[in-house]
Amino acid sequence: MNDIRIARYVLALIIATISVFPAITRAQSDTPRNDEGTAGEPYPNMPSIPPIGVRTGKYFDIPASAQVPAVAPAKGYRLQDFGGGLYMITDNQIQSMFLVYDRGVVVMDAPQSYAAHIRQAIAEVSDKPITHLIYSHSHADHIGGAKTLGDIPTIIAHEETLRLLKRDADPNRPLPTVTFKDEYTLHVGDQVLELSYHGPGHAPGNIFIYAPKQRVLMVIDTVFPGWMPWRRFAVSQDVFDEFARVEDVRKMDWDTVVGGHVTRVGTHADVEMQAEFYRDIKQAAATALATTKIGETLNPLDKGNPWAVFDNYIDRVAAQCVSTLTPKWSTKLAGYDVFIWDQCYSMEQTLRID
Ligand SMILES: [Zn+2]
Ligand SMILES: [Zn+2]
């Protein structure tokens, strides 16, 4: 072996040692101590619906009661005619409306996902210009496509919506030009829209829009006809106020309700069912909170960790809540399995803290 070959051999040996050494030290440090941080035994009486973060093989089938005409993919939306010049536009996931009057069109919300089709949808039934845009509330999923409509002379919203939109400073959501506090009635030609504010519920500034001639009520992110509500009661900032808004909708006089999400519009029977579900989940979570013992099933080594004590307790409360509701509700509400854990966690939090 000449000097150069010896040098290469030594170098190769050093490289091989360096590359193997970390693997040896990794293997040693991977050995768990006291099973720290590894999955434990399942909770007692664990529901079969996988909890948040656990993958579901196949979600429950959608019941026929929640199914609607398909949206042609090339078109991107479908129109539903309520009569009297009032229409819903939807992509079967989000819903908005427009109202035709003698000299123009009033658009209610401009969802991000299909706002580019709104002018085309209007053109199917009218050649009048858009004169007014009404924002149900400030959230981008419902009005984030407003800019694509071009400059609209009048944009109407609740004063809280103006405040939030100023804060957000989003060029896709132009600021309202007209705001109100409690009630605002829009008269255009022989058409009428009654706007009213009942409280923060889902989000500050979220209004009711009622078309009295057509007997259609639009209340966004509050009623979910035939469906489990979106997670954590539509991510409401005030869950009990959101429940109160559902009661408001239930007591009002109308024929059709537009909720802003899911597949179809709703009837009074849908709202009755949602109110009943809310009563049941409140009761189920209250009972679970009252009957679940803090600290039971906890690893004794975690007793000094208050976050862990409550995480374990809350998990067991939520599991009992899910188990209580599943027999009655799993086949009544489309998407029950998707968000029932979220709703039980939210109800637990709301009852214990609010
Ligand atoms: Zn919203
Ligand atoms: Zn929404």
Q: How would you characterize this protein structure?
A:
This protein has about 350 residues and is α/β, with parallel strands linked by helices. Helices cover about 35% and strands about 15% of the residues. It has 9 helices and 12 strands. The chain has helices at about 5-30, 120-125, 140-145, 160-170, 230-235, 240-250, 270-290, 305-330, 335-354, and strands at about 80-85, 85-90, 95-100, 105-110, 130-135, 155-160, 180, 185-190, 190-195, 210, 215-220, 255-260. A 7-stranded mixed sheet has the order 1-2-3-4-5-6-7. Strand 10 (about 210) and strand 11 form a beta hairpin. Helix 6 runs antiparallel to helix 7 (about 270-290) and helix 8 (about 305-330) packs across helix 9. Residues about 15-30 have low confidence and may be disordered. One zinc ion binds near residues 139, 141, 142 and 221.
Gist of the model:
This protein has nine helices and twelve strands. The chain is an alpha/beta fold and 354 residues long. The protein starts with a helix and ends with a helix.
Q: How many runs of DSSP E, i.e. beta strands?
A: 12
CA-atom Rg in angstroms? 27 Å
Bound molecules: zinc ion
- The tally of helices reads 9
Shape: elongated
Beta-strand proportion: 15-25%
Major β-sheet, in short?
A: 7 strands, mixed
Order of neighbouring strands in the sheet with most strands: 1-2-3-4-5-6-7
Low-pLDDT runs? 15-32
Mean pLDDT: 91
Helix vs. strand class: alpha/beta
Distance between the termini: 81 Å
Could you spell the SSE succession in H and E letters?
A: HEEEEHEHEHEEEEEHHEHHH
